[in-house]
# Entry
Amino acid sequence: MLNKKSVDDIQVTGKKVLVRCDFNVPLKEGKITDENRLVAALPTIQKLVKDGGRVILCSHLGKPKGKALPEMSLAPVASRLTELLGQEVKFVPNDQVVGENVKSAVEAMKDGDIILLENTRYREEETKNGEAFSKELASVCEIFVNDAFGTAHRAHCSNVGVTKFVDTSAVGYLMQKEIDFLGNAVNNPQRPFVAILGGAKVADKLNVISNLLEKCDTLIIGGGMAYTFLKAKGYEVGASLVDDEKIDYCKEMMDKAERLGKKLLLPVDTAVAKAFPDPIDAQIDISVVSAAEIPADMMGLDIGTQTAQMYADAVKSAKTVVWNGPMGVFENPVLAKGTVAVAQALADTDAVTIIGGGDSAAAVNQLGFGAQMTHISTGGGASLEFLEGKELPGVAAADDK
Ligand code: AMP
# Structure
């Protein structure tokens, strides 16, 4: 269990509480296209409102890099949160995030009121964890609550810097839930524990592979990264995505698995095509070949049918499954079959199923399996760093219990 002060451990009645949320939602023409992160933030906000706190919400959205870009304003989030909460979330925009209008709005707040500040990344210092902006944020509140798991792997003003200038810093329910689910799965799993890694490159997941090999019973590799492993086994992988600099690393990991007595599963067959689909969802002709016999002019773009069956069987016998990264180019329906098969296996099992954020979360939701998973993380980068065994600065900065 996370040993940090939580919203259950603080007295907020009549107090100004600054809550760092992760409202970094995708927008299309000013409309929110995936509101999972907003929904995930509601329990903490509702708890603080119920307890009579004066709730000041803040978040980043996108990467405006210190510029007040109107298309990255949090205005649409305020409107949607108002609907979701059934209570006004007053948007108090300021290009500097904190300013005179914010101070007067905060002074006018009554117990249980909610306001939302503008995108914290309108300020360049935000991502540099600068002291001045951290102090400005701290100046509007008496208590700080961090519920933004999605940025917990970064030390920025609004999640780490601010804690130095506030007496009380706690974590919210979402943060607690994320750490409890991921932490239990990795450090205290019901066994057999099967970890599934996919996605594009081995280089992005070096430490995750190594750390999970130590913790799990079976490590399954799919996606683009599988071909570097296959090449390390001495196979011909044709034009598949290969990280030549990481071939030795893959050999090391295969040796490590053997030394630790862990199963490391690699594709035995693969869907191949002449070229990467362009656009990504373009019509594409594929064939399925043995993983040991990829033709020189073809590239592997998904796991094959036998592999999908083998991976689904491994999931079937597991009690805990952690999954990060798609099994193929799932954005293309023809190349999504491996990812769908794995998602289906997770949906069918009674095991604890944890989905790392980012592409795997998008894939599971897009394919309609979201509701059948035990937990889908709201943070891609943060969940990966957690799976690497790293301490997350956004969590570490909160007060201990
Ligand atoms: P990541 O962000 O590392 O989880 O990678 C996700 C991306 O990997 C998705 O956009 C997939 O299309 C891509 N991907 C999966 N399998 C392959 C593959 N065999 N070759 C190239 N890209 C792939």
